[in-house]
Design brief:
- The complex is a heterodimer of chains A (about 350) and B (about 350).
- Chain A has about 350 residues and is mainly α.
- Chain A folds into 2 domains: about 70 residues, no CATH class; about 210 residues, MetI-like fold.
- Helices cover about 75% and strands about 0% of the residues of chain A.
- Chain A contains 15 helices and no strands.
- With about 350 residues, chain B is of the alpha/beta class.
- Chain B is built from 11 helices and 12 strands.
- In chain B, α4 crosses α5, α4 packs parallel to α7 and α5 crosses α7.
- Classes of the chains: A mainly alpha (about 350), B alpha/beta (about 350).
């Protein structure tokens, strides 16, 4: 297994090299001039030229690329052309909020999605099954920002006679009046680690609505994949063999159905985890969470090349690591993968 | 331990059958469609230690019969009627939990396709021990030791290592042996083998069949052998039920059946087997048509559309399975039986 992991890690090197090249090209293919974006509409041609030379945008592309990669290899991700802040600092500022939100959204989606999909499949064709399928269809198609605003309106602000439902905070990550100690900048985790339970509880309350909003699409997808996988496996010959052995229902579910059905589910969860990290922008905006989303959005509109490249590369790296985890899990679940 | 053939035979004569299937009906219902009658009033007995064959082509209802006996048909969309008496107890009247106690312990089953009948992500050993731990009350260690000796008995070399292997590391023949070991683990009184050799290579087929034959003889386990292969029947069965379109059309002892098939369908089946002593280049005699060309039994003999001997007399509604007056060792559902060899036409 260790060998497998090492080999996969080694394989990530060419992937990252290719990615840095693509990313470099893509960022430069974005319409607009970064120097002008920095200086504004009224900048003189001379200052634009100066800035262009300052950042080296006038040099041939391959030179730019190699100096970029050279800096990367020294651990230098550059600085924002807008604010001058190092990209690494910007990332560190936003990452905890985004990661916390993504993890909670994924936890919500997995914890609810796998059981729902499982029970829907085991009661195939019943009202529960139909309801689950219908609801999951709705969950896939509802736009995130719409759902986020709706949740905020009903469960944070409160509307009309239902305003007793508005129990959750509307925005932010934690009530600033709470004097919380921050170690990791994952607020919920900090609250637990320092045993400041009021801080942890408050952070959790702040996470509920954004996590539900962000986790709904993955939830719906996980429900559907789980249901389909369980239905598939239930019809397999080896489940019939298990039934013919007179095994307890719980043994059959756990050992013979779920274990096989989890294979496609694990793949899906991995893909969703990657999407959540990069897809939290809208949710973060609605709930005014200071995550990667806002910074990334600014970087795109202002053509902040170093920030764009750095953020996307970091997200891609995490994506690759999640994929590796999925592959390892796959090997744990399915012995046929281990050999090959 | 070998039970002397004499005692077995005596036990068979003694009376109460181990399994008695009475007027079994299985209908598959689908909303908005006429129900399909897969099994249409099947009755047969299995005495302790006896090997009974259910023979017929695809779709004749033999597998559905066995799944109904095991209570393994899907809970919805299926209607099962009749009686399946196992030692006097009607299995169809049992709750699914009561059936769970019985399955794997008193009645076990070996399925057709060993490639798909084992769980690919669970070690073979666990798949053997789980049935021992469930029904024989063994702890982990005992079950492991017993599993090892079981694998050895079904002829799997190096059983200790094989227990740790996963199904994909075993060949098809090995897997079927493992499945046989699983089925026989709790020394069931009845084994249902549903085409256990069909998915195997011809050379392996003979080995597996021989193994089954030997094991059931040693343990005194009764067996229902479901097959479309008359060669299998000839090798192993004491009594044979030939099924067509959901009903038993002929029942006889193995020797009687092969010596003198009486139903036109049985006759057709025997004629369509390639023979080593046949003239070189000679043609086989197939049964014309296919199993879907059937007449509903309530209008006449279902086989009539494919039968060379059929005439207007065959349109008897619900033809009975009766004692054959020419060959009293046969039961028969046919208006124009095949004349016995040597008889004048």
């Amino acid at each position: 297994m260790l060998q497998f992991v090492l080999r996969r890690l080694a394989l990530m090197v060419p992937v990252l090299i290719g990615l840095s090249l693509l990313l470099f090209a893509w960022v430069r293919a974005l319409p607009g001039d970064p120097a002008r974006a920095l200086l504004g509409q009224r900048a003189t041609a001379r200052s634009v030229e100066n800035v262009t030379r300052l950042y080296g945008f006038d040099r041939p592309l391959h030179e730019q690329y190699f100096s970029y990669v050279g800096a990367l290899l020294r651990g230098d991700f550059g600085s924002s052309t807008q604010t001058g802040q190092p990209v690494v600092d910007l990332f560190q500022n936003g990452f905890p909020a985004t990661a916390e939100l993504a993890v909670c959204a994924l936890a919500f989606a997995v914890a609810l999605g796998i059981p729902l999909g499982y029970f829907a499949a085991r009661r195939h064709g019943t009202a529960l099954d139909n309801l689950t399928v219908g609801a999951s269809l709705l969950g896939v198609v509802v736009p995130v920002f719409f759902l986020a605003y709706l949740l905020k309106l009903v469960f944070a602000i409160g509307v009309g006679p239902l305003d007793f439902l508005g129990v959750f905070p509307t925005s932010g990550r934690q009530n600033p009046r709470i004097d919380a100690t921050h170690i990791t900048d994952f607020y919920l985790l900090d609250g637990i680690l320092t045993q400041e339970w009021d801080a942890a509880w408050d952070a959790l309350l702040h996470l509920v609505l954004p996590a539900v909003a962000l986790g709904t699409i993955p939830l719906a997808i996980i429900v559907r994949i789980t249901r389909a996988a369980v239905l598939d496996v239930t019809g397999e010959d080896y489940v019939r063999t298990a039934e013919a052995k007179g095994l307890l229902r719980s043994t059959i579910s756990r050992r013979h159905v779920l274990r096989n059905a989890l294979l496609p589910v694990v793949t899906t969860v991995g893909l969703q985890a990657g999407l959540l990290l990069s897809g939290a922008v809208l949710t973060e905006t609605v709930f005014a969470i200071n995550g990667l989303g806002a910074t990334l959005f600014d970087a795109i509109t202002l053509l902040d090349y170093p920030v764009l490249q750095g953020f996307i590369l970091a997200i891609a790296l995490m994506y690759a690591l999640i994929n590796l985890t999925v592959d390892v899990l796959y090997g744990v679940i399915d012995p046929r993968v281990r050999v090959s | 331990m070998t039970v002397p053939a004499v005692t077995l035979a005596a036990r068979r004569r003694e009376g109460t059958p181990l399994l008695s299937v009475r007027d079994l009906q299985v209908r598959f219902t689908r909303r908005g469609r006429a129900p399909v009658r897969a099994v249409d009033g099947v009755s047969f007995d299995v005495a302790p230690g006896q090997v009974v064959g259910l023979v017929g082509e695809s779709g004749c209802g033999k597998s559905v019969t066995s799944l109904a006996v095991m209570g393994l048909l899907a809970p919805r969309g299926v209607e099962v009627e009749g009686e399946v008496l196992f030692e006097g107890q009607d299995l169809l009247a049992l709750s699914s939990d009561e059936l769970r106690e019985l399955r794997g312990r008193d009645i076990a089953m070996v399925f057709q396709d060993p490639m798909t009948s084992l769980n690919p992500v669970v070690p073979v050993g666990t798949q053997v021990t789980e049935v021992l731990r469930r029904h024989a009350g063994m702890d982990r260690g005992q079950a492991r030791d017993e599993a090892e000796s079981l694998l050895e008995r079904v002829g799997i070399p190096d059983p200790a290592r094989r227990l740790k292997d996963y199904p994909h590391q075993l060949s098809g023949g090995m897997r079927q042996r493992a499945l046989i070991a699983i089925a026989l683990a709790c020394k069931p009184r009845l084994l249902i083998a549903d085409e256990p050799t069909t998915a195997l290579d011809v050379t392996i087929q003979a080995q597996v069949l021989e193994l089954l034959k030997q094991l059931v003889a040693e343990t005194g386990t009764a067996m229902i052998m479901i097959t479309h292969d008359l060669g299998v029947v000839a090798g192993i069965c004491d009594e044979v039920n030939v099924m067509y379109a959901g009903r038993v059309v002929e029942r006889a002892g193995r020797r009687e059946l092969f010596a003198s098939p009486r139903h036109q369908y049985t006759g057709g089946l025997l004629r369509s087997i390639p023979r080593l002593d046949a003239v070189r280049g000679g043609q086989l005699t197939p049964i014309p048509g296919s199993a879907s060309d059937v007449l509903p039994w309530e209008r006449g003999c279902a086989f009539a559309p494919r039968c060379s001997a059929q005439d207007a007399d065959c349109l008897v509604p619900d033809l009975e399975l009766t004692l054959d007056d020419v060959r009293p060792e046969h039961r028969l559902r046919c208006v124009h039986p095949v004349p016995p060899p040597g008889a004048a036409l």
